[in-house]
């Protein structure tokens, strides 16, 4: 049955590939098409047979290509990856719709499945309190390979709409032919549209890209999710009739506020970002108001209206005689006029209309929309109130005038230097950096409780200190202009001490965001524990902070809630995949215990990347695999890399992914049996086994990455990291410092580089050695313990499931081609031989524990995806190796740079969660 259903996907992919081939022939000619097809066939032979003949022929074919021909080939396979993504997304929608139309039981991960489970478990009464306190927030972050041009996104959306139309509409032969022709035109347009920007990426480019997903998905689909859930609850229980849920879900952003390692995010960028976000929200509201006014053509003579609605209409400047008896239209015209003036105030665009008062806050706009809603309901027009007006009211509630809560983030080292300079200026001779931790805490607390300010308008400060103070001042301005929800959080990267928290508190005090007399603070101070050592120390740091009366006072002003962010990326780079996952899990358990003892509400913010090596993987399983008490109805998690486009570019796919986050949070909170820790009978043994596995894996990983002489050179020569750094892909430098050390390298380029060469090392290395050592130490029953962990413990199941996916997307033969880029043969052979042996050991260990005979055996959807797309990703890898050879031999013209950039984007798009 699945084969029959999947044939529709295969048919779509074949058709899109054929139409792309036609576009290539028409534009470049038959010889170019034949070259591209020849390379594809050789790449398939290389993957299938991995024989020397195929390797030699492929190398010869690529070396014979001119730079222009190489670029043509790279473009062809990159565009096909985009088309394959569209086809897969549409097939997923097709299957989901067919499931719903057939009236089949709700699928796991859907809202209906989660709500049904809660009612079936007899816990329906807990839902009200759950939603009162719930908060679910995916947070978009910028990514170096995933700043796709809006023109490309528009082309993809047009193609997706045409594919969707064929599924939803029974077409006549003429209509089917017209659809086919339009599809061809769409693909020609895509082929003729540049994939890359012609200028260096700026932070505001990244902001614009992030906001494009609001156009496609978030602004429309998130309000629909609320409405759908409200209706679902009302159908289950009459007590939910006419109940409007609190705003428990928002989509946040780091783009334009993340300063960690990005020198280009300054105060003016923060202001521009918030202004752009506000303009996006208000533009959407204005468009919806115009559509709503066109629909509510209700004549007063035919239907009454409320007195508040009549007053709203009378205040409107709409003097058209054609609408004199249409109070709803007149009222909406007045709301539109006020909102237009509000847009002028917040975005600086246009000119204010005289005599029209702008809205001071989104709450005022919502109050006017509520007048319209109440009038409709009170006059028997409930059905009209539940249409576009319902969605607009929810949008205003959720997005306000700021659209997305924007987080600030900065490294603790920067805060430390800035505070040190301020103290030195106020107390000459005081060297803050020379103080130990207890001395720092004492000094900071004394200053936090003092009414004086350290800053002086007459002092000259360094550029760094001036910049940090300026951006905090910009936050205060934003709170006045847009409300405190516009910038609600300040995240401290590399948090490693209580003083790191207090330093930020002091900087907030200096600009008026913290008031020492009332102990009120206007933003959440959030530590980010990233490295293995920091994760281990995190719970004790929070316990120490909670023991300080002043800090507890600050938390009282934030509803006795503390958010803690956990870094998946840097902990992985620091300690490897297995140890990172285990230390994160243990840290969560300890944090839950500390917070419970101190009676502080815990919200965890999971800094997950797109790739498994950065904490990625299916969100539903990841949330359910959290230790007991770690979710508590509240969760934030980052959405990064190619995952943002994969999840949110298509509105229906985006809606499904938003639902998954809510469904998993509901189940994790109200049905804790879904994520129990290891069964009591075997729990202690499982925990001990995991500790043993983690210790061995950590040693294996750190010995390779940080303990092997020449590994840094091997990494820089065998991957595309040097080109990522040199090509300035993204607004953020690849390293935190001007060095090539792995310690200073940011996690995104670290993981991305390994993904590009198809080795995916951060997502599996060390596991094979760990299992081998465990089995050797426990020859009697060791394998049974590991299999029991996989069967009974969601954390371990999720860990291995993610590793399975990474290994399925890896290719040791292609990785070997990249290894040949290392000039020192002795170094190359020594390290790659070691990596290859660990890869084989990891494959064997995974199969032993899971009982699988092949990778992704339990995930036919992923197997299908690999079959469909790898014949087009593999050639890009081979081309990239050839391009890197040429580039490093000195052929570094614009065409060579473009070719490498294209290959990076093409491979990332094809793998979908590589960065």
UniProtKB/TrEMBL annotation:
<dbReference type="GO" id="GO:0008964">
    <property type="term" value="F:phosphoenolpyruvate carboxylase activity"/>
</dbReference>
<feature type="active site">
    <location>
        <position position="573"/>
    </location>
</feature>
<keyword id="KW-0670">Pyruvate</keyword>
<comment type="similarity">
    <text>Belongs to the PEPCase type 1 family.</text>
</comment>
<dbReference type="InterPro" id="IPR033129">
    <property type="entry name" value="PEPCASE_His_AS"/>
</dbReference>
<feature type="active site">
    <location>
        <position position="143"/>
    </location>
</feature>
<dbReference type="Pfam" id="PF00311">
    <property type="entry name" value="PEPcase"/>
</dbReference>
<dbReference type="InterPro" id="IPR022805">
    <property type="entry name" value="PEP_COase_bac/pln-type"/>
</dbReference>
<protein>
    <recommendedName>
        <fullName>Phosphoenolpyruvate carboxylase</fullName>
        <ecNumber>4.1.1.31</ecNumber>
    </recommendedName>
</protein>
<comment type="function">
    <text>Forms oxaloacetate, a four-carbon dicarboxylic acid source for the tricarboxylic acid cycle.</text>
</comment>
<dbReference type="GO" id="GO:0015977">
    <property type="term" value="P:carbon fixation"/>
</dbReference>
<dbReference type="GO" id="GO:0006099">
    <property type="term" value="P:tricarboxylic acid cycle"/>
</dbReference>
<dbReference type="GO" id="GO:0000287">
    <property type="term" value="F:magnesium ion binding"/>
</dbReference>
<keyword id="KW-0120">Carbon dioxide fixation</keyword>
<dbReference type="InterPro" id="IPR018129">
    <property type="entry name" value="PEP_COase_Lys_AS"/>
</dbReference>
<keyword id="KW-0460">Magnesium</keyword>
<dbReference type="GO" id="GO:0005829">
    <property type="term" value="C:cytosol"/>
</dbReference>
<dbReference type="InterPro" id="IPR015813">
    <property type="entry name" value="Pyrv/PenolPyrv_kinase-like_dom"/>
</dbReference>
<comment type="subunit">
    <text>Homotetramer.</text>
</comment>
<dbReference type="GO" id="GO:0006107">
    <property type="term" value="P:oxaloacetate metabolic process"/>
</dbReference>
<dbReference type="InterPro" id="IPR021135">
    <property type="entry name" value="PEP_COase"/>
</dbReference>
<keyword id="KW-0456">Lyase</keyword>
